[in-house]
Specification:
The protein has three helices and two strands; from the N terminus they run αβααβ. By secondary structure, it is α+β, with helices and mostly antiparallel strands. The longest helix has 14 residues.
Length: about 70
């Protein structure tokens, strides 16, 4: 979709930028059906990681570690 420069890699900044890119392309966060990230703690954190923030907006946005595509 896009490559975006971010000022930092905090969860709030990443969520803001991803949400902006989705809305820029007329895509609604509510329609996310899955999330695939690497194993970094800021991405996968169960309670305060990026995946947790998106699940708050869309409960069907299940998270899988990116290695799951090899299964």
């Amino acid at each position: 979709m896009d490559i975006v420069h971010v000022k930092d890699t905090t969860v709030s900044t990443l969520k803001e930028e991803i949400s902006f890119v989705l809305s820029h392309h007329n895509l609604d966060v509510q329609n996310i059906m899955g999330q695939w990230y690497d194993g970094a703690s800021n991405m996968r954190g169960e309670w305060n990681g990026l995946q947790a923030l998106f699940i708050n907006d869309c409960p069907y946005a299940y998270y899988l570690h990116y290695l799951a595509h090899k299964l």
